[in-house]
TrEMBL record:
It comes from Pyxicephalus adspersus. Its main location: membrane. This is Transmembrane protein 88B. GO terms for molecular function: PDZ domain binding. InterPro entries: TMEM88. Belongs to the TMEM88 family. The keyword Cytoplasm does not apply. One of its GO terms (cellular component) is plasma membrane.
Length: 179
């Protein structure tokens, strides 16, 4: 390149007054031939509330599934630690017959330690179960982008995938991941 071309190139590309993008680009440019039409101000507010509600509902669904899985998997730890604390003389010292006949302070301490030791692998197991279930049920596909509120014609995120649980299309067996 000659010196004149390099100077022209530098002047054209480096500018103090570069143009900024006036609005957000469309969400999915692959499916759109023309730029999508923006919504009116009130339409944008209404759709923002609707998308926020849908995302909050998706958050609640994920939270309920996560809570149920963790409660089921961590039940043995909860029971062992509960009985350890319940029967120890310096903590709750219950007058139940099994505390008097079966568990003394040493065995109660052993139950507490056993419960906390077995908690770590059970938390990993519960998280692996949740991730596998969330992937199989496509729970994270329930969350919607906020560009739906800005532009008309944005499809639901899970629409191209064959539904929320991919009931329409077959599950892709070629791609597998260990959790």
């Amino acid at each position: 390149m000659s010196d004149q071309e390099i100077e022209d190139f530098d002047v054209d590309n480096i500018s103090d007054t570069s143009r900024m993008i006036p609005s957000l680009p469309p969400y999915n440019m692959d499916d759109q031939l023309l730029p999508m039409e923006t919504r009116s101000r009130w339409g944008c507010w209404i759709w923002t509330v609707f998308v926020s509600g849908a995302n909050f509902l998706a958050f609640l669904v994920n939270s309920v599934v996560l809570g149920a899985i963790f409660t089921i998997v961590l039940t043995p730890t909860i029971v062992v630690v509960y009985f350890g604390f319940k029967c120890h003389s310096r903590v709750l010292h219950s007058d139940a017959s099994y505390c008097k006949t079966l568990l003394d302070d040493n065995s109660s301490s052993a139950l507490i330690i056993l419960g906390f030791v077995m908690m770590s692998p059970l938390i990993v197991l519960a998280m692996a179960l949740y991730c596998g279930l969330a992937r199989r049920l496509r729970l994270f596909m329930l969350f919607q982008p906020y560009t739906r509120a800005l532009y008309k014609g944005v499809r639901w995120r899970w629409y191209d995938e064959g539904g929320i649980c991919s009931c329409v299309k077959e599950w892709n067996n070629h791609v597998k991941a260990w959790v």
